[in-house]
Amino acid sequence: MNGKLWTSAKIELLKRLYPHRKTKDVAKACGHPITSVYHMAHDLGLKKSAAFHSDTKKSGRFNKLTMGGIPFRFPKGHAPANKGLRRPGYAPGRMAQTQFKKGQFPVNKDPDFYVLGALRVNADGYIDMRVSFAPGACGWRALHRILWEDAHGPIPRGHIVTFKNRDKLDVELDNLELITFADNCRRNSVHNLPPALKQSIQLLGALKRTINRRTRNEKQDRGLEGSPVRDAGGSPG
């Protein structure tokens, strides 16, 4: 604001002009900055009229989505410049010689990796077998599950195949057993561990929870501190 007071005459002028004129023109007529006009109009509850908004020339509004892009749109029925060029087998020059063929594998990979029956150790430590050429992990299945199903049929719902000696790499039929999810949960429970190890795990968990709680509290405390940008404005006086 420029420090000028809004007289009753200026307020009446604002009420008469604001709903039907551009704000910058109203500000010029009232002799106040445009920001001061906006503030006073807000305090008085003044709004632009529907007629003002509907007249794009008067309001100066411009719908970029519906109007601005018209000169750059393809007209209805326009034929693309490359229409008919991208047909099956299209390869000008020597392009066809450098294109990957269907089913081709990269030359910098072990060819044995791209054959059915190839084995790998996945990120969880289990041995996988390639059963198809589907992309990603879809082409692999756990070897111990395949071995079990070949001998005993499909794995029932709610069951898993696990290793008797806990060694994931010892994939032998005699080392495999079928157990329920509940049995597997009880088997891997911390309560089955030796007392000393069980206590160490519990203390480690308590320590992690304490660290996380203090870190979270410190972040919340920092969030309550005054913002330098907000404080820079200061309070009047």
Helix content: 40-55%
Main sheet makeup: 3 strands, antiparallel
Largest sheet, spatial ordering of strands: 1-2-3
* N-to-C span: 16 Å
What oligomeric arrangement do these chains adopt? single chain
- Number of helical elements: 11
What is the C-alpha radius of gyration, as a whole number of Å? 37 Å
Strand content: 5-15%
Report the strand count.
5
Structural class: mainly alpha
Architecture overview:
42% of the residues lie in helices and 8% in strands. It has 237 residues and is mainly α. Among the domains are: 8-60; 111-190, no CATH class. The strands form two sheets. A three-stranded antiparallel beta sheet has the order 1-2-3. A two-stranded antiparallel sheet has the order 4-5. The longest helix is centred in the C-terminal third of the chain and has 30 residues, at 195-224. The radius of gyration is 37 Å and the shape is flat.
